[in-house]
From TrEMBL:
PANTHER family: INNER MEMBRANE PROTEIN (PTHR30287:SF1), MEMBRANE COMPONENT OF PREDICTED ABC SUPERFAMILY METABOLITE UPTAKE TRANSPORTER (PTHR30287). InterPro entries: ABC3_permease_C, Membrane_comp_ABC_pdt. The lineage of its organism: Bacteria, Bacillati, Actinomycetota, Actinomycetes, Bifidobacteriales. The chain crosses the membrane at residues 18-42, 62-83, 103-129, 149-172, 208-228, 240-262, 308-329, 349-370, 377-395, 401-427, 439-461. Residues 64-177, 354-467 form the ABC3 transporter permease C-terminal domain. This is FtsX-like permease family. It holds the Pfam family FtsX.
Length: 479
């Protein structure tokens, strides 16, 4: 108990990132839960409010469910990053006699303390945010009446949502700490085989999830074959739309499965992508070579990977839905009577999945901050090796650039896979393979992300270089 609470103080820089993710997740889940409770209240008042409330409930449920899934994914990635930064301390604790069960209980206690603090913030803010969420979604769906905030069943809705967040946090902690049971403390202290012992078990799970995602994406193929065989010209517009609606949620499910696959077996994938694209850069600069070698080594680690997964989640959720929607809409437009069929645009997707996107974005920021300790140690070691301050700053800027570029390329590649699978699924109707890739989205978001990542690592390195390199090394190893 004392060690667990003391660790929160000693590693406050690391745990603050976890707390940030928990606060955002709990606040969003609590506010969404209260919004759904208010909507349920209006659903039972009168016939005048029942139908609009039912229509709004479906949209709120989709946002809420996606936020829960992304919340679990981001919390788990953030905890993995924090454990990687503290792995030597946990290994030393094991060598001093602590059992894996005790380490689990210690960390569970820490997560419970932080989650309760985050839940308190969410409980206080939910009465303010819930009516705004209702106004936002009701205006987006062009509801004929506003849904005014009410305290009816507020406490029950809030506590149920907060309990969901607590379960998500504890489940993510349990899944993360299962990996500690497979590590050898002596190897961890020696920084040998730090992550490799955990990779093989995840490959098969990641591949299985990837195959499952492709199967889900190809489900509309049966619909296309059915319509092509039946001749859509003999069917009404409503009948055709009804057939397509049976598989309308497939792309979202496939995207979630792909994101889970990336989080489960992302180390090798992220490392491969990092090595591939950095090898294609024809630069003889020694600074680039050092920055690249550092990124390649760290790309298989949890801190690097958690930032990539969270960043990829943001871009892929929007880009994948755009690619699937626009590709399918282009194919469906070739059916007589559906020439005017269109899909949702970027703003509609952003407004529909704002909660999940916000959680993923905060997860990327938190993981980026958690990995600062590792980056600072690398800079200190290079400084001792003889690098000048100007070279160190440039290496840091390139480090952020490589990190963000890897996330963007992964999201772009996954988006193309979704678009290509959708094009194959609708091939019997379109009679041609045509993928609609959202280039404008990745350019509009990718350029600012690259700039922000480079500037952030540059500024953080500038602050680190103000202290002696030996002091940074001593702080990193706990002396």
């Amino acid at each position: 108990m004392k060690w667990a609470l003391n660790d929160l103080k000693v590693n406050k820089d690391i745990w603050s990132g976890v707390l940030l993710v928990l606060v955002v997740t709990q606040t969003i889940l609590c506010s969404m839960g209260v919004s759904m409770g208010i909507n349920s209240y209006y659903m039972g008042i009168s016939d005048e409010t029942r139908d609009p409330a039912k229509h709004l409930a479906s949209g709120l449920s989709l946002v809420y469910g996606t936020a829960i899934i992304l919340g679990c994914l981001v919390i788990m990635q953030t905890l993995q990053a924090s454990i990687r930064q503290r792995r030597q301390e946990l290994a030393l604790l094991s060598l001093l006699g602590a059992t894996p069960r005790q380490v689990l209980l210690f960390t569970m206690l820490q997560v419970v303390v932080l989650t309760l603090l985050a839940s308190l913030v969410g409980l206080v803010l939910s009465p303010v945010l819930a009516p705004r969420i209702l106004d936002f979604h009701s205006s987006g769906m062009k509801m004929p009446m506003p849904f005014v905030f009410t305290w009816h069943n507020f406490l029950r809705s809030a506590l149920m949502s907060l309990a969901t967040g607590i379960v998500v946090a504890l489940l993510a902690t349990r899944l993360t700490l299962r990996e500690l049971e497979k590590t050898v403390p002596v190897q961890t202290l020696g920084r040998a085989h730090g992550d490799e012992v955990l990779i093989n078990d995840k490959h098969s799970r990641g591949k299985a999830l990837f195959v499952a995602a492709l199967i889900v994406l190809l489900i509309p193929l049966s619909t296309s074959l059915y319509l092509a065989h039946r001749n859509p010209q003999t069917m009404s517009r409503e009948q055709i739309i009804g057939v397509f609606s049976t598989t309308s949620s497939g792309p979202l499910l496939a995207i979630i499965l792909l994101l889970i696959a990336l989080s489960r077996a992302g180390g090798s994938v992220i490392g491969w992508v990092t090595r591939l694209w950095t090898n294609l850069v024809p630069s003889p600069s020694a600074v680039w070579k050092i920055a690249r070698s550092q990124a390649v080594v760290r790309s298989r680690g949890k801190a690097f990977g958690s930032t990539i997964v969270s960043l990829t989640s943001c871009l892929f959720l929007v880009g994948g839905l755009l690619a699937a929607g626009q590709t399918s809409a282009t194919s469906i437009q070739k059916i007589p009577g559906l020439e005017n069929m269109s899909s949702g645009g970027p703003l509609e997707i952003l407004s529909g999945f704002w909660a999940a996107l916000l959680i993923a974005l905060i997860g990327a920021v938190a993981s980026f901050a958690i990995s600062a300790k590792e980056r600072n140690l690398d800079l200190a070691l290079i400084s001792i090796a003889g690098a000048s301050p100007e070279q160190l700053l440039l290496i840091s800027a390139l480090d952020g650039f490589i990190l963000m570029m890897t996330g963007i390329l992964l999201a772009a590649g996954a988006t193309f896979v979704v678009g290509a699978a959708t094009a194959v699924a609708y091939l019997p109707l379109s009679k041609s393979f045509s993928v609609i890739f959202p280039w404008s989205l990745f350019i509009a978001l990718g350029v600012p992300i690259l700039a922000i990542g480079s500037i952030a690592t540059f500024v953080m390195a500038h602050a680190t270089l103000k202290q002696p390199a030996i002091a940074t090394i001593q702080a990193s190893i706990g002396e």
